[in-house]
Amino acid sequence: MLLDTYGRTATDLRVSLTDRCNLRCTYCMPEEGLAWLAKPELLTDDEVVRLVRVAVVELGVTEVRFTGGEPLLRPGLVGIVARCAELGPRPQLSLTTNGIGLERVAGQLREAGLDRVNVSLDTVDPEMFHRITRRRRHGDVLRGLAAAREAGLTPVKVNAVLLPGLNEAEAPDLLAWALEHEYELRFIEQMPLDAQHGWQRDRMVTAGDILASLRTRFTLTAEDDGERGAAPAERWLVDGGPARVGVIASVTRPFCRACDRTRLTADGQVRTCLFAREESDLRGALRAGATDAELAARWRAATWGKKAGSGLDEPEFRQPSRPMSAIGG
After folding, report:
1. What are the tens digits of pLDDT across the range 46-72?
2. Does residue 290 form part of some domain?
3. Considering just the CA atoms, what is the radius of gyration of the chain in Å?
4. In this structure, is the dihedral angle defined by the CA atoms of residues 79, 285, 8 and 16, taken in order, positive or negative?
5. How far apart are CA 48 and CA 17, in angstroms?
6. In total, how many domains does the chain have?
């Protein structure tokens, strides 16, 4: 098991397959993009599958989510999913994507064994989409969402970030649209993980702001009575249910005490927290001939040193050197 000194067990693995992305969201990276990892630095498909196997078979991981960057840019994605679906015990497999290209591969991913998808979409307005992402691909995302639903990758979840001066007033419109299309919407507070290090706490749209905006049009009833366990989202029934909406308040309502996540970067580093400033190298050990047992021992040691929380509220907090696109969501 992946235990830490605070009694938490990591059973949810986030695997970044690439740091590349085909959007340039203003809250993530500069318009010109970033210096991507060179191919030799990336884990190969075989290496990804082997480390997932170690996590599942040796360390008790039960859920695996593939992330990026944009994981649909990984040529071997379908094959990786298929091989991970063959592991025993079989983990739950999901994908976080911006949806561009999902229309083409949703069926293949479902056949390979993918269970569901999370698609990032911050606005229902194509022009606002262009302002936020610097790309005109709104229609591609909508078609990708529809294809995921038709392929049975359900529940299809939509992740939205609200930004001051841009789409901060869109919460009710996004929820109405999600309800119409039977998607499960989750709002995520903007976090200090941008490559530009321009995040400012006093300028973010908070969970409280989002809920207040939603309540101008909808009746929200807390589904979990404040006890959501390790789930990052507080969930609310909309107009009595069964539809629901989630809010992930990583900054203003952190859920560190129940965190069950461990992360593997595209270049084979273990991260115990999105905001960690330390990493533990598995790629080097793997390529040096380490056994599965040795890799598992390294992973356990990294997890044992996991800190109590993100440190966001501490005066000495500093952003990690890697941005979100290089960590994986």
Report:
1. 999 999 999 999 999 999 999 999 999
2. yes
3. 19
4. negative
5. 8
6. 1
